[in-house]
Amino acid sequence: MARRNNNTAVTGEVYFEHITIGNAVKVSAIHASSGAEVSIAGPRTASQKELERVALQKLVRRMEQKSGR
Q1: Which residues of the chain carry a pLDDT beneath 50?
Q2: If both were cysteines, with which of 1, 2, 40, 50 could 10 make a disulfide (CB 3.0 to 4.6 Å apart)?
């Protein structure tokens, strides 16, 4: 479950895909049950955990926008 500060939540599984392209990494976050997907790009030197955190934040925001929150 992903949680934001304003107590909205995205429940269910989220899959992450990492693709290295030169000195950058593209990280996609996919919400398993809805199929919602977002991508971010970051430096190759950034930690996997940090890149996934940013991608998850973007996914939560996208899902909130779709639900009208």
Answers
A1: 1-8
A2: 2
- In this structure, are residues 28 and 37 in contact, taking their beta carbons and an 8 Å threshold? yes
SS3 at position 38: strand
Where are the extended beta strands (E) located within 7-55? Answer: 9-10, 14-21, 24-31, 37-43
- pTM of the predicted protein model: 0.83
Q: Quick: pLDDT tens for 48-62.
A: 999 999 999 999 999
Cα–Cα distance measured from residue 52 to residue 38, given in angstroms and rounded to the nearest whole number: 11
Residue numbers of the domain that contains 28: 2-67
Number of domains composing the chain: 1
